[in-house]
Amino acid sequence: AALQALKRKKRYEKQLSQIDGTLSTIEFQREALENSHTNTEVLKNMGYAAQAMKKVHENMDLNKIDDLMQDITEQQDVAQEISDAISNRAGFGDEFDEDELMAELEELEQEELNKGMRNVRLPSVPSTSLPSRPGKLLLAGRFTFLMVKTCSSTRKRAEDEDEMKKLAAWAS
């Protein structure tokens, strides 16, 4: 009886192993079917999406889209120009060309310089005879030149300062 029970046990274990294998195969097949069904649904939905996108894009033309984008860009540029025009100060000294103003200022300075030069007194020519030695003449000439230069540069500096004060008063 023990031997019969052992044989039965082995047979049942074999059947259990076969049933377990069958169940594993069935479970594998079930999962494969589920995956196939999922793949079919995904593929079907992708087809629907492709058809929907085709339908949406039927009315769209790339040239029309490019034209539309150019129109939008142009309108944004116009809006920017309008904004710039509104934000700029209107007529507060911007209507003059700076180069022209600088040229006119230089002309006025040159006129003033010319007027100042008309009032410059040149030293008179000595009426006495020149010394016989050239060294003394050269030294006297240098001294006279330095005196004239020093006086004129001091006078010029004072005139320039006066002109700057007048210009500052006129500008303010």
TrEMBL record:
Entry membrane topology: Peripheral membrane protein
Key word Cell inner membrane present: no
Subcellular location as annotated: Cytoplasm, Cytosol; Late endosome membrane
GO CC annotation terms, alphabetical: cytoplasmic side of plasma membrane; cytosol; ESCRT III complex; late endosome membrane; multivesicular body
Chief place of localization: cytoplasm
Keywords: Coiled coil, Cytoplasm, Endosome, Membrane, Protein transport, Transport
InterPro entries: Snf7_fam (IPR005024)
GO biological process: late endosome to vacuole transport via multivesicular body sorting pathway; protein transport; vesicle budding from membrane
Family membership noted in the UniProt record: Belongs to the SNF7 family.
Name of the protein in its database record: Charged multivesicular body protein 4c
Organism, as annotated: Eurypyga helias (Sunbittern)
